Amino acid sequence: xxxxxxxxxxxxxxxFLYGAGTIAIxxxxxxxxxxxxxxxxxxxxxxxFFLCGACGVEPKKFWPGSTGALSGLLSSGKAVDALAAQAxxxxxxxxxxxxxxxxxxxxxxxxLSQALTGKTPTGNGNQATxxxxxxxxxxxxxxxxxxxxxMTLYAGNVKNGFIADRLxxxxxxxxxxSVDNPYKLYQKLTGLxxxxxxxxxxxxxxxxxxxxxxxxxxxxxxxxxxxxxxxxRAELNSLMQNPKLSSADVQRLKQHFDAIRDSETxxxxxxxxxAAVGCTLDGVDTSVYQALSSWKYNATNVANGGIENxxxxxxxxxxxxxxxxYNRTGTLQWGDGTDHTVYQTPANQTLGNWNFHYISHRTQxxxxxxxxxxxxxxxxxxxVVRMTTLAKGLKHFADRGLQNKSVVVWTxxxxxxxxxxxxxxxxxxxxxxxxxxxxxxxxxAGATNGQLYNTIxxxxxxxxxxNFGSSGGKEIAAVKA
Amino acid sequence: MGSSGPIALSGKxxxxxxxxxxxxxxxxxxxxxxxxxxxxxxxxxFLHSVANTTDFDNNERVVLVNNDTWGDFQGAAxxxxxxxxxxxxxxxxxxxxxxxxxxxxxxxRRAFRRDLTTAEVTTYTALYQQGSSYSGSxxxxxxxxxxxxxxxxxxxxxxxxxxxxxxxxxxxxYEMAAKLSFWLWNTxxxxxxxxxxAKGTFDSADGAQAQAKTxxxxxxxxxxxxxxxxxxxxxxxxxxxxxxxxxQGYSDGLKAEFTGAANSFFDYIYSKNLGVRDILTTNVGFAxxxxxxxxxxxxxGSGIQQVTLSDRSGWYSQAxxxxxxxxxxxxxxxxxxxRVAMDSLCLELGPPSGVTLPPVPAQxxxxxxxxxxxxLTNGCGRPCHTIYINPVGFSFEQYDGIxxxxxxxxxxxxxxSGSYPFxxxxxxxxxxxxxxxxxxxxxxxxxxxxxxxxxxxLERDIVDSERPTVEALGAxxxxxxxxxxxxxxxxxxxxAFRTHVGGAQ
Lengths: 481, 505
What we know:
By secondary structure, chain A is of the alpha/beta class.
């Protein structure tokens, strides 16, 4: 583990400025921005991150052999063995089902729409959608600063996937768009890279190192933005006074208005935890992120491990965001509903490099389900690849010492390739402030995902009875420490 | 199954008066108002709008300014303005003046797509004065102009196309100019269009139609309508096709050819003044060398070429569609039927209530693909499948999983016959060519395309109360020689396009 606290390079004012949406101009750390102390010991935030993989797992080769303490269980040739290094902070849960436990239409869209909402979805085909907000949004509303929405991330074909954005919802049928390029979050967190062609005069200084632009120039930039924002707010206010506007339009403009206000709020609150242990850029390979500045998804750059790299890069940044208290919750949709990523595992090479969705169906079809045994083997291999990636991502959280103040949840939008949503895999890392069992493999015995989220919401927000989704207010005792 | 008419009009529009520019509209508009020589590229990293939850991704429900997108617009505005004000000379390319009032009025007109009000001129003049006092090596004029442009490119008057008049009253001439320009050219109105708007050219239906008629023949319109067809017919999915290596005749090189052929096909339909009937029945297709082989045609060069497909009828009998909706070498009869039903007949197809869908079984010895799906669907969702989906899907059984013609399946003759309950009566057909002819004759497909067009142009869902408009547009399409452009011109003249409806507080 890297001892970040001994080699701390605090995120500087550039981060604060870019996070507010400005062009990065290589500003130095501004002494005028108070570097506040870390959170009080008795009010430590609990951070939550939810990842949802695609197309289920091969159950025979995924789960540990038996329930109980994980020590010794993660060496039996199962996919979760890849997580052995994190065993002490893991909680693997079987026996959880979604409210709609079998598809009545497009299982993938339905699965995604309930994976984090805990409610039976609605709608048809690939337009199936949620009937309530997702757990990340509920948590964000409760504990993020006003204007800070959950980090909504994606690894896969977000623009042209048949079922792309469908994980994070701010309300019924209101899915949140996600960010597929890690560079974008990187920009917000570090402010190191200017948009292409900005002519912004970046100094190109090293992370946290400050630049050559004087503080008055930085203050001038802030002043300019304030003037612009004031002008725009006045225009929005004027427009909102129009009596012809519908309530929906007033709400639309209000959302715009609030976004401006919130960006200014963020300017004054972001980075308040600069002194927190783990809030450093150590371990962040800035050159890797900068190389993604013009990255766009295509089938080639996510094949053969490309999508795994994106996942790990996202996770590295989320860990940094948590360590710096930049944001307290987020999601990552890991593959499209009908994930056409090609994983070139040995068995899949035998098949001729099928896409993952076909492998999960055990036949080359988006609709049919077959029994190809080589595809079954390929699915098991892909599970290992994904668990290996998850392990790498979790190491970022561990390196930043987040295991006692966060929980990272990995699940899937279906249990397995036949679209069943019973016994959907759940792998949790971190004890969420001592609430969750650690180092255990437990059986939830048919409980729903909403019931699990009740426990997590309570841990993260302090709300003792959240009654999330269609959970009926119940929790899962088996997961609690 | 649908609503009170043959096509489903069950949308839930918000009737917003504030239609935010899409990312591509932002890119094109910034290019135009700043008189740039190349796209800024800024929008490449903008948050995209959510796809596949509405008919099109320009729908009012998915194009918003929120916490996530605000930062994109703010940062991009600052970046592009920094570039065009890097030197005093660079700014002259935007507006060639050194007079602040002239600059504010000229640039403001472009950005807001109308003349600025007196109050707005006052506001931006104050902003100019503030900006001109800031530090930097440029002149005070350039610095002042920079702050003005930075603000205007973030203004709601820039970021939204607005419709602010009374319900049912015609849009202003400027609003109509913007509506036409963003729809047909995917960018802000040109200076010439704004000049025309200032003269009231767009006030009358005939005036607006005359302007639109000119715009329709511009290559920019072909490109804009290509995007609509791309989303409607799910062209991007062609790039995701994968097949088993055992499928003879398939190679990944086909994916790029399919995309090129699909775009060329819909460009052809549009630019040649053809219509829905031709989409369904033409024997003109496009193919690269790999695709030509599937059609049994000789390769003719390396690029996408126009070809005659004498035994095929329209888009749905062409290799891109047939290969996309297939399981390896076998037709995916259900999805072929579903796509035609939803994309060209505008049926709403839902899953059977409370039924867990079974997988498609393997094709058995001596069983045709059709028999396989009949066995499967007899026990599951029978009314929808038997009546609305399967007959359409089975009509394409003479085309295998990569669009090659075939007469037998598993040693048995293919059966492509069926009947379909159209809105104007049940019709029998012997194969997909006859089915497409029947579809093209009746009103349903014409109304369906018209509905999709209206949804794209108005950037919202279309509802049952608008059925008369959809039927009128459909009639234009259905009439002899009815073209896409004629339907578009008819839409421009419609009340739905020319007025703002809905939205009382």
